[in-house]
Amino acid sequence: MPVRPARPASGPPAPPQASPAAPSVPPQGRPGPAPAPPQATPLRPGAPSPGPVRPGSPSSAPAQAAPAHFTSSYGRATVPPEAPVEITTRLRPVRDRRSAGRTAVVAACVVLGFGLIGGALAGVWLAASEPGKPAEPAGYAEARELWHNAPVDVLFPRTLAGPGAGPGSAARTWTRIVVAPDAACSPAVLAKSLLATVEPLGCERVLRATYTDATASSVITVGLVFTRADAAAQRTLGQGLTARLGQDVPPALSGPSTVAARFGDRQRASWWTSAPADLPVVVTAVSGFADGRTVDAPQPADRAMAKGRTDAVAQSGLGHEAKGITEHLERLLRTTATSAAKEKTR
Question: So what's the pLDDT on residue 72?
């Protein structure tokens, strides 16, 4: 009986053994696999070839400095030829030939930056010490914004106490009866000469209110003129402002159904205008009789307050009223502006 060959065991056939001597020939038209990169040259004779080095391992420390006998054509010490990238970048950083140039540029920029900063600071110090250009007083910038940042009851309190503000240092108390909306700088709310004076400085806004005294026999319209003047211009503005403006009487603010209902231009009796050096504001006040009587020749407050005057304006203390309420509003503005500056620094 013929002998049949044995059937191989089940499962995939084993791969044929490749001959180590036979070179691998790629099929026609297809590139073969890239040859394996050569092994890196050991760092020194007799040392084992370095394997992959992980960052943070002891072997990742910087390489030792090159021996002195490795010299370039310029006579300076150089390192031996670089090892392959996978070893060089892990053993020591590759030196960039442009690093020295970049370092010089960075150093120059630092020096230039310090010079510019120093020059700016020196300019500030010189400007602060230069005559005619004082530094802004505390709260100066904040005062410029009070016309829209502070409530009306802060700028124009409902009641103002004026101790020593009347004739013979008599006490005065004023009650607010009229408040006007804030307005642009115009002849309707400012005297013409004052408007011409503050417009070049930057006239921002005008706020006005009218008060009456405790006896309701006099009425006083007060105004706050906010400007964009710097400290130097403000200091110059305030020097003898009322005298420089001449017969420049501020407009009156009447109020229907109040004791100031008949307070108009012909009822203005005395006035005062002040520009404090530490606030970018001009404060004005004009007083008159509450009964509507007319005054032919209004007088500035300092003249109406002069000793020996016997006319009705002087005897009624309308000059004292105008100047006293102006000074009171100045102090109030200063306190409000200082408090706003302190709040900003917290």
Answer: 41
